[in-house]
Specification:
about 180 residues, alpha+beta, six-stranded antiparallel β-barrel, 7 helices, 8 strands
């Protein structure tokens, strides 16, 4: 008889601040969406992290935008390279809720005028005819692989690389204050 252990029971718990910093310092992710027909779609995307949310610039006719418009549930994987070559990257992964926002929405206008979306709007994205933004709210529970472990520990026990953190309380609400202030 074979027994299977739960992954969450075996997961280690990396420092939530380390994971939050890793998300904020990165800009590349793989975004998974699902079509109305239930077909999965994964696309590379560049994101900007602002106050517990990720923003992705896209075109409203893109597959990822159409999928988010029909189904708000998404999944993301953020690779975290720890060595310049060789070893596969560690990862941060989670499921979340996404929303499509017009580039002239109050939220996007406030964030872009404050310079907080510069990494994803610096090439004229806001002026494109069908431009829009995908906003992804970070969930409290984030799953990781390889983070919070030394490379030596991970190499010795790759099956023990799964981690889990709760990011509750680490959200920077500065952008929320800016958005509210601009509406007044």
């Amino acid at each position: 008889m074979t027994t299977t252990k739960s992954h969450s029971a075996d997961a280690h718990h990396p420092d939530p601040k380390q994971i939050s910093r890793a998300i904020a310092r990165r800009s590349f992710c793989m975004l998974a969406t699902v079509s109305p027909a239930g077909r999965p779609h994964v696309a590379a995307a560049i994101y900007e992290h602002v106050a517990g949310r990720l923003y992705i610039s896209t075109i409203s006719t893109s597959r990822k935008a159409r999928n988010v418009a029909d189904e708000s549930h998404v999944a993301l994987v953020i690779p975290v390279r720890r060595l310049p070559v060789g070893a596969p990257p560690s990862t941060i992964q989670f499921q979340a809720t996404a929303a499509l926002l017009a580039v002239d929405s109050d939220e996007i206008v406030a964030l872009s005028s404050d310079g907080r979306l510069g990494a994803i709007t610096g090439h004229g994205e806001l002026e494109l005819p069908d431009s829009c933004m995908i906003r992804i709210d970070l969930p409290q529970r984030i799953h990781t692989y390889g983070l919070g472990l030394s490379l030596w520990e991970l190499a010795r026990n790759p099956l023990g690389g799964s981690g889990e953190v709760v990011l509750d309380g680490l959200r920077d609400d500065r952008s929320e204050e800016l958005i509210r202030a601009r509406k007044l």
